[in-house]
Design a protein that fits this description.
This protein is α+β, with helices and mostly antiparallel strands. Helix content is about 45%, strand content about 10%. About 20% of the residues are buried.
């Protein structure tokens, strides 16, 4: 038992003394302390084998995941702000000078790159892909430069799940896009949202690629 206590005391002393040394020496002391702490713990449980000296930072910290890119605080705030519910436009489509939904049309070919469809992950209504977010930011800039342009955002889903679930999910997707545009300076009274649910797929297959194409938001426009 005394030997076990000695091991733990020695480890604690090494850790405390490491604070007063340079970073290189500190790391060496931490590794050494780690060996003796492990040996002391093993001794408590009756194990008697030689602990292994760590040879690199990677062994101590674990492997890095190259596919993981942490979001900045500004990114997280932007996503949170864009997902906030906003009031619907004051004007009702088709009344008091506002265009009816039937008057909205697909953007002409020369504007398709600006009004490109946006795609979502399964069961998600938030955009995470940086290219999609960049495209939506570009769309906001175009709408601000063209104040007579009105927009309908259609939310679509793939064909899985119930009709009622997909109708609600499609609306959340459309409202997310609308909120993003408004937070980036577009007048909320020029943007309408509708959900098409799973009723208007552009791919009729049952593969993951088909489902991905159908999980989208699309745009129609009207210019006064």
């Amino acid at each position: 038992m005394k030997q076990q206590i000695h091991f733990l005391c020695a480890a604690a002393i090494l850790l405390l003394s490491a604070c007063s040394k340079n970073s290189s020496q500190t790391w060496e002391d931490v590794k050494t302390a780690g060996r003796y702490m492990q040996k002391g713990v093993d001794a408590i449980w009756g194990k008697d084998y030689e602990s292994r000296m760590l040879t690199s930072d990677e062994e101590f910290l674990g492997p890095y995941d190259d596919d993981f890119i942490p979001l900045r605080d500004s990114d997280l705030k932007q996503f949170a702000a864009s997902d906030t519910a906003l009031p619907q436009p004051r004007g009702i489509p088709g009344q008091r000078g506002f265009p009816s939904l039937d008057e909205f049309y697909l953007p002409p070919d020369d504007l398709r790159s600006i009004f490109q469809a946006l795609h979502f992950e399964t069961d998600s209504h938030v955009l995470h892909d940086r290219a999609e977010i960049a495209a939506l930011t570009k769309l906001a800039a175009h709408l601000k430069k063209n104040p007579n342009l009105y927009l309908v955002i259609e939310g679509h889903t793939d064909q899985r799940a119930s009709a009622s679930y997909n109708m609600a999910l499609g609306m959340r997707r459309a409202n997310y896009v609308r909120s993003f545009l408004v937070k980036n300076g577009v007048d909320l009274n020029r943007i309408y949202t509708v959900s098409r649910g799973k009723e208007q797929p552009i791919a009729n297959g049952n593969s993951p690629e088909d489902w991905k194409l159908n999980r989208r938001s699309e745009f129609k426009i009207y210019e006064k």
